[in-house]
Design brief:
- By secondary structure, this protein is α/β, with parallel strands linked by helices.
- The radius of gyration is 20 Å and the shape is globular.
- The chain folds into two domains: 158 residues, FAD/NAD(P)-binding domain, CATH 3.50.50.60; 123 residues, Polyamine Oxidase, Chain A, domain 2 (Alpha-Beta Complex).
């Protein structure tokens, strides 16, 4: 068994699932995350006493490993099932209100980011550290950090779990199979966070079939949230978000709030509003493999861009990479 730890780039659910699999195999892990929090796009923003789950809105469970992990999260109080009232808008402009949907939806409690924290147990996480380069040395792998004057290592292996464009920037010098990341196109998403004293809408989720938004949810109606004021998260359509990617945040907030009013039939002035830009929000064309691994089994990549744009897909990809690296590093 390797005496050196494994470095993981990214503390989203793929990175933390990768680390958990490595820890299960008895290997030490160091995670490097450029932001201050855990979870990546499984995110909760808290401001002025308000809470917005402004990234992934829920997780579904369809496979084998993730349902077991979700059961543990629910038992630990870190997740709960969500059964919202949904209003779908058809192309003819009519609406269909319903409270059931095919999959079971799960959310983190008291916020989406709580879902990933138990996965980090036993992993050393360095927050606010941006990885800018990877180097293979005689004594193992090394990372270049931040302003390129700082290095970390040596490591027995490296797992890169950043979104595809960021992963490609680190992995491109190492050639195949990592060049496949260039085909994993990712769409941006403008997201608006808005709080209202009250918004007279029966549904908790609105899904228009046309216009600039694809999803609006009353996140204050999720389990273990404060119901007042009403907190809403609005996701822009991928094409609309791309076409308006560089616009000012205030203009984005105006446009998406107007679209919410049109879709919901309710008009109210928000007591708080903000816009957040996700440049790499959703994998449109995943690679179609659980993970990518170098020939010697010491450099790998994982993420939702490998298997698909779902929380479970990111978890499965990270877990697959962790197990593949562990198979190479343990007897």
């Amino acid at each position: 068994m390797s005496a050196l730890p494994v470095a993981i780039v990214g503390a989203g659910i793929a990175g933390l699932a990768c680390g958990a699999a490595l820890r299960e195999a008895g290997l030490a892990v160091e995670v490097f995350e450029k932001s201050r929090g855990l979870g990546g796009r499984i995110a909760t923003r808290r401001v002025d006493g308000l809470a917005f789950d402004h990234g992934a809105q829920y997780a579904t469970v369809r496979g084998e490993a993730f349902p077991a992990a979700m059961q543990e999260l629910v038992a630990a109080g870190a997740a709960a099932e969500w059964r919202p009232a949904i209003r779908d808008h058809r192309l003819d402009g009519s609406g269909d209100e319903r409270s059931r949907h095919r999959d079971r939806w799960f959310v983190g409690t008291p916020g989406m980011s709580a879902m990933v924290r138990p996965l980090a147990d036993g992993q050393t996480v360095h927050r606010g550290r941006r990885v800018t380069g990877l180097t293979r040395r005689r004594d193992g792998w090394a990372l270049t950090l931040d302003d390129e004057s700082v290095t970390a290592g040596p490591y027995a292996a490296i797992a890169v779990t950043a979104p595809a464009p960021q992963a490609l920037a680190l992995l491109e010098p190492f050639g195949a199979p990592f060049d496949r990341a260039v085909d994993a196109h990712m769409a941006p998403c403008w997201t608006v966070l808005a709080a209202f004293d009250a918004l007279p809408v029966i549904a908790d989720v609105i899904r228009p079939s046309r216009g600039p938004i694809t999803w609006a949810a009353r996140t204050s109606a999720l389990p273990d949230r404060s119901p007042r004021p009403e907190c809403w998260v609005i996701h822009g359509d991928p094409v609309w978000s791309r076409d308006h990617l560089e616009e000012e945040r205030e203009a984005i907030a105006d446009a998406l709030l107007a679209a919410l009013a049109e879709a919901s039939g309710a008009v109210a002035a928000p007591v708080y509003r903000a816009a957040h830009r996700w440049r790499h929000a959703r994998a449109l064309e995943p690679v179609g493999e659980p993970c990518l691994l170098s020939g010697d089994g010491t450099l790998g990549a994982a993420g939702d861009w490998c298997l698909g744009a779902r929380v479970e897909a990111a978890f499965d990809s990270g877990r697959a990479l962790g197990r593949a690296l562990a198979a190479r590093l343990t007897p």
